[in-house]
Amino acid sequence: MWPLDPSQKEVLRFAVSCRALTLVLQALFNAIIPDHHAEAFSPPHLVPSGSMDQLVEGPAHSIPKPLVQLAVDKGYRIAEGNKPPWCSWELPLIYSYIQDIYWNVGFLRYYELKQVPNFLLAAPVAILVAWATWTYVTTHPWLCLTLGMQRNKNNETLEKPDPGFLSPRVFVYLVHAAALLLFGTLCMHVQVLTRFLGSSTPIVYWFPAHLLQDQEPLLRSLETVPWKPPSGNSPPGQKIPRNSVMGLLYNWKTCSLVTRCILGYFLTYWLLGLLLHCNFLPWT
User: Fold this and answer.
1) Percent of the chain at pLDDT above 70?
2) Is 78 helix (H, G, I), strand (E, B) or coil?
3) Phi and psi, residue 11, nearest 5°
4) Which of 14, 84, 143, 147 is the 20 to 30 A CA-CA neighbour of 236?
C-alpha cells in the first residue's frame, strides 16, 4: 500500500472503525428487533373501484391484460374511471402530479399543526445551516453584498485570507446551502431536510467543525500539543487519545455546551437512524 502520513492514517482508521461498528450494530439491532410489515412500506393493495387513493389511474380496459395481471399479482391497485388529468398536460409529468395530489407537496402546504414533530426533527440541521449563513454574512458582509466579486470595499486582495470555514472560497457553498434550506423549508416535506442537506452541501459538516475548533478549548489544546503516549503523571480522569473526536468523547464532562450539543446530535442521529432505518421503520 502507498505510504500515508499520520493524519491520513487516522482518518482511514476512523472511517474503517465507524463502518465496522455500523455493521455490527446493524446485525445486533436486526437480531433484537423482530421483522414486521410497516404499512408505509407495504405494496398497495387492491381497493374497490372509485376510491380516491389509487395508485394506477385510467380505465382498466385500456391497459393490456398481461400488465393488469402483473399488477394484480404484485398487489397494485387497479383503478377504473376517466383518464387522469396529467395525461392532457402539455408536458405530462406524472411525478409532479403525484407530488401534488398524493403527497401534498407545495409552497407552505406542510405548515400544519400536526407536522410539528417533523419540524422539530428537522430543526437541528436547519439551525446549523442558518447559523452558518449568519456567521459568514456578518464576518464578510461586503463579500456577500458583491456576490463574491470583491473581498472588501477597497477592492484589495487579502494577503492571508481567512482559513477554514470563513475563507472567501466557501461563499459559493454557503449560497448553495442557504438556497437549499430555503427551498426545503418552504416547499418540501420538512422531515427529509436532514438527509437532503446532508447529502447536498458540505456546510452541514464544515460549520460544526468550525464551531468545535473555535469554541472548544480542549480541542485546541489537543491540536497544538503533539501526541505522545500517556505517562504515569498525566492528570487523573483525563485521557488524551490520538484522535481529537475521541478525545472530546473521553472528556465529555469538561467539554463546552456547544461541543456537547454538536457531538450529541450527530451521535444520536447516527444511532437512531441505524436502529430505525435498517429495520424499515420511518426515518428521515
Assistant:
1) 67
2) strand
3) -65, -45
4) 14
Give the number of residues written for the chain: 284
pLDDT tens-place string over residues 223-254: 555 445 444 444 554 455 556 777 788 888 88
Compute the chain's Rg from CA coordinates: 26
Let me know: does 97 contact 55? Beta carbons within 8 Å: no
Q: What is the pLDDT of residues 111-155, one digit of tens each?
A: 989 889 889 989 999 999 999 999 999 988 888 888 877 666 655
Chain segment 15-35, per-residue pLDDT in tens: 788 778 877 876 776 666 555
Contact 194, 284 (CB under 8 A): yes
Of 70, 94, 76, whose CA–CA distance to 84 is shortest? 94
**Residue 197 near residue 129, CB atoms below 8 Å:** yes
Q: Exposed, middle or buried, 137 (CB in 10 Å: 0-12/13-18/19+)?
A: middle
Cα–Cα distance measured from residue 67 to residue 48, given in angstroms and rounded to the nearest whole number: 19
pTM summary value: 0.65
CA distance 199 to 177: 11
Handedness of CA 94, 100, 106, 110 (dihedral sign): negative
